[in-house]
Amino acid sequence: MKTLVHRALLPGLALVLFIMVGGNQAFCADFVVIANPDSGIEKMSKDDVVNIYMGRYRKLPSGIKAMPIDLNTPISEKTKFYASMVNKELPEINSYWARLTFSGQGSPPRQADSVEQVLEIVSNNKGAIAYIDRKKLDKRVKVIFDSTP
What we know:
alpha/beta
């Protein structure tokens, strides 16, 4: 009887542990927030980044009009970014922006289809900021917020 319980429970327990560890890794933040090198900002706080992405601030600390860029790929950087920065899931973020848009109080960040498009937009616009996986950085942009402690 004891062996039967172990055989039945052990695979289930292993699956739960795998999901917990894998789930945590999926939400581990390893992204950076980037800006144009001519944006006039060197670093931004987490609160500043959140306030720009949630439409509360419309300008960068340098006074330039902010243009936050969202990746249009829900699974990956976008999920990690919003989970880490505002502790919200994408449906909650979409609902938030639907309310603000409907009431005329703001519009969501501009959408980009790929990291390459994000890099192109940021490198060509002084007010653009975006989040990308750290591994995809290039010299056209600079890091203004790092998600790792």
